[in-house]
């Protein structure tokens, strides 16, 4: 088996006093531009399929909490051994506000895998929490191929103080209000994104915009998560926002202004189409375990009890890269399955260039080469797909 080494040079980045702009989008993808496939490889129908699969778990309840502009249901999964409990703390996670940030969904997908696993630790989590998850908060944007907007062309990450609210914002805000009105309200609210900055980090809100106590709680939370993925997630100092007061248009603004120190509400940014994009399971594991620690839910099992979500396949960076004739693509499949394994090559504008491989494969390490000589120089994406799961790598072909 190929050992997969993850080496990331940590360059702590202090960004103080800047305007609050999330996700670090690159200009050419800012507005309604296709980056990969039309729905970035995971569309509304993919979600409906997965919801059917997840729904087979006895710990899952799925409800529509409202509708998008184009009348697609906004699906919420509740995962708990005791979903009707009036004492267990709630954790709320929503993702794909920005459709083009599908990496944030893959992290959430791995969080779901952890929560539904048979591992003893997963049982402990389900018996002590209620997770609410929206896997696709902006389904219209996903289906329309928009990078950031809903069907009205509005970025619904913002505008939480608008009047009237965009339909999706109204639905989520009402749901937050409803759950905060229960005897066991939300304690942690995570807003999942991914950024071209090519780091994994939380957006930390400075005490000037929150409070010294809240800033300390944020540091505790972020450090606690990071302890489980030290080389993968940046320290809390990486991205500091709200240095000149509290903005009023974001979900975290609403949380702070409405519930203050009672709710740990943070945006998490994964890596959007970077060389080191991936390791979603490691990130998910860190978020889940860090969140449990933050809530004071200590599990006293053995180390092996925690092993709940091994990576099922790994696409390595091609080599050489950049390349001028052909390049080697290596990947490993870590479990046997009956699913079709495919390798697709996409152009930077999302056009399918070539299907290099398309057949079921047993577990093992694989290597194949791709010859770019009949194509133009430029950026391409390798996508490894097994069943409905994908991993992608960026490569550069220079003639
Ligand atoms: Zn985003």
Topology of helices and strands:
Blueprint: H1 44-54, E1 60-67, E2 73-79, E3 90-95, H2 102-115, H3 120-128, E4 130-134, H4 139-144, H5 167-180, E5 186-195, E6 201-202, E7 204-205, H6 212-226, E8 240-241, H7 251-259, E9 264-271, H8 280-294, E10 313-315, E11 326-333, E12 340-347, E13 352-360, E14 364-371, E15 378-386, E16 389-397
Parallel strand pairs: 3-4, 3-5, 5-9, 7-8
Antiparallel strand pairs: 1-2, 2-4, 6-9, 10-11, 11-14, 12-13, 12-15, 15-16
Helix pairs in contact: 2-8, 6-8
This protein binds zinc ion.
The average pLDDT value, as a whole number, equals 86
Order of helical and strand elements: HEEEHHEHHEEEHEHEHEEEEEEE
Main pleated sheet? 7 strands, mixed
Strands of the widest sheet, in order across it, are 1-2-4-3-5-9-6
Strand fraction band? Answer: 25-35%
**Radius of gyration from the CA trace?**
21 Å
C-alpha termini separation: 33 Å
Determine the oligomeric state from the structure.
Answer: single chain
By CATH, the architecture of the largest domain is named 3-Layer(aba) Sandwich
* Helix content percent band: 10-25%
Bound molecules: zinc ion
Number of helices: 8
Find the structural class using helix and strand composition.
Answer: alpha/beta
Task: Tell me the total number of β-strands.
Answer: 16
């Amino acid at each position: 088996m190929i050992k997969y080494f993850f080496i990331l040079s940590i360059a702590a980045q202090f960004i103080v006093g800047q305007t609050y702009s999330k996700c670090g989008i690159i200009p050419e993808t800012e507005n309604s531009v296709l980056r990969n496939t039309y729905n970035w490889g995971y569309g509304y129908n993919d979600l409906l399929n997965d919801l059917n699969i997840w729904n087979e778990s006895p710990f899952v309840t799925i409800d529509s909490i409202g509708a998008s502009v184009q009348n697609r249901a906004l699906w919420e999964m509740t995962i708990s051994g005791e979903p009707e409990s009036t004492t267990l703390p709630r954790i709320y996670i929503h993702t794909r506000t920005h459709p083009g940030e599908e990496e944030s969904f893959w992290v959430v997908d791995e969080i779901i895998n952890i929560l539904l696993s048979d591992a003893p630790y997963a049982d402990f989590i389900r018996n002590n929490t209620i997770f609410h998850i929206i896997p696709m908060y902006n389904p219209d944007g996903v289906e329309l191929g928009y990078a950031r907007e809903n069907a009205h062309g509005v970025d619904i990450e913002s505008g939480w103080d608008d009047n009237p609210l965009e339909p999706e914002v109204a639905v989520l805000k009402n749901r937050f209000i409803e759950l905060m009105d229960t005897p066991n309200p939300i304690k942690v609210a995570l807003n999942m994104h991914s950024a071209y900055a090519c780091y994994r980090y939380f957006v930390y809100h400075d005490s000037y915009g929150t409070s010294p106590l809240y800033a300390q709680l944020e540091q505790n939370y972020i450090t606690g998560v990071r302890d489980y993925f030290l080389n993968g997630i940046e320290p809390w100092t990486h991205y500091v926002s709200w240095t000149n007061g509290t903005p009023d248009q974001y979900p975290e603004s609403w949380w702070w202004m409405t519930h203050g120190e009672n709710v740990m509400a943070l945006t998490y940014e994964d890596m959007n189409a970077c060389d080191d994009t991936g390791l979603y399971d490691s990130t998910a594991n860190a978020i889940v375990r860090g969140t449990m620690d933050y809530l004071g839910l200590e599990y006293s099992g053995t180390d092996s009890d925690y092993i709940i979500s091994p990576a099922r396949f790994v696409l390595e960076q091609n080599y050489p890269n950049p390349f001028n004739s052909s390049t080697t693509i290596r990947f490993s499949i870590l479990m046997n399955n009956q699913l079709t394994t495919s390798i697709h090559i996409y152009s930077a504008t999302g056009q399918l260039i070539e299907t290099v491989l398309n057949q079921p494969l047993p577990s093992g390490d694989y290597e194949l080469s791709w010859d770019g000589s009949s194509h133009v120089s430029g950026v391409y994406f390798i996508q490894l797909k097994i069943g409905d799961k994908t991993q992608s790598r960026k490569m550069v072909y220079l003639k």
